[in-house]
Amino acid sequence: MHMYDNPVISGFYPDPSVCRVGSDYYAVSSSFEYFPGVPLFHSRDLVHWRQIGNVLDRPGQLGLTEDLPSSRGIYAPTIRHHDGLFYVITSRVGAGGVPAGHLVVTSERPEGPWSDPVHVDLPGVDPDLAWDDDGTCWCSCSGVRTARIDPSTGAVLEGPWPTWSGSGGQYPEAPHLHRIDGWWYLLVSEGGTGDGHAVSIARGRSPRGPFEPCPSNPFLSHRSTDLPIQSTGHADLVQAADGTWWLLLLGTRPRGAFPRFHVMGREMFLAPVRWEDGWPVVDQVRPQHPAPSAWHPWAPEPTRDDFDAATLSPVWISPRSRPDTSWSLDDRRGWLTLWAAGPSLDRPGCTFVGRRQQHLDCRVSARVDPGTGRGGLCVRMDEAHHYEIEVGGGEASVVARIGPLRQTVARCAVPSGPLTLVIETRTTDVLPPAVTSAAELELGPPGAEAAGPDTLAFSVVGTEETLLAELDGRYLSTQLSTGFTGRVIGMYATEGSVAFDWFDHAPATPAGADAGTDGS
Ligand code: 6LW
User: Which is the most buried residue in 37, 60, 118, 177, by most CB within 10 A?
Assistant: First the structure.
């Protein structure tokens, strides 16, 4: 029997939803301020996933404006297949976290193209779609409230009315209605998307209710445990082709000293479900579980993007927009050319093309030709939390932006022409905590206990690899930046045009505990 590794999709892919069509599974996740939005994954076994596109890949479908704060935008999609059509419904959230309604897009093929959206004006976030045998479509949102809608027009036909709000935890959200054995099961998450996160369920004979709660609610939570996977919640339920049941959900892998830090945001985990007395049971979400009977690994994705293809891979994302005038694969064949659209990563509008960090111990490198411009590699949480290594003006430099502070922490002269920049994240070589007083020195050598989640090392490669700086990873964690996202690592230009021959994103050696945890 195969064992599979959790997370099944590493990196910041929260709020999963999943549906099965025959022996194919499709999963989506939140994308917040990033364009394109709603990454879409395909699997044949629920374990190995590959990204086949982004559901919202035309700017007009998302409506992300340049003044949109980080961690706002596109939240918590649901994917369903009904009557020969794929449906994705998702919320738009504006400044201050104010929900701005939902949008529904459809496609006959998961690869798209997906339709222009229709809008559904219902309160809350985390919309779900479910259909009755007679074609009635139910839309449930956080709260939890349910309405009858027409998904082809977005019209709300009846409701919303309160359905069931969990077992008393805060923020009842992420509802999913599933019809199983003559019952309507209403799956919800509660307790907030942090340490208290939990999954509960109720059932009724009609989607209108009344709903009878499961006696062991919440039936899944890792709160108050020392398990390595935390914040388990925001789940969707799916029956595999072999009849077994599974929960696809989000969780985190916090590291470092209390209150601990996670740097890759909320990731996608798979947990086996068994049924007892008509209720689902999930014991724990562990780093490894016995796999579903189907086992279908995809050919490994190359770690390096050579930019030789005619189009950009769907992994590449940019904050809020990626105007055609800011990038090109044609200007210099085999290179990605970026044109600066703003002078600094500290403000929206800067040209940045990145991908989610997917390995805890990660080595990212890129061959960069700055020409007469300025640009490089950046690890980004948001405009106020990022580290970068850049070249320009005959120099390579490492810059840290942490909250209100911005500092160049290292620089060195470099020859003109292309060179390779490297960023490594290391969990095995964490910087010692800073010594701030003589009294601390007397307590013993600093660094006996690593306080941060990881160390980021920045190097430039000439005839040999020169380490320029090492920085504490906690300042690029979700706990510091706040919000709902995780690290994105990518390429940018802040002056003129900067060309990238290739970009490599690989597990670092030694991979240690991270080896094999990247199911995608
Ligand atoms: C999402 C909510 C949640 O809307 O976090 O984990 C919010 N759950 O359901 C943003 O991801």
Answer: 37
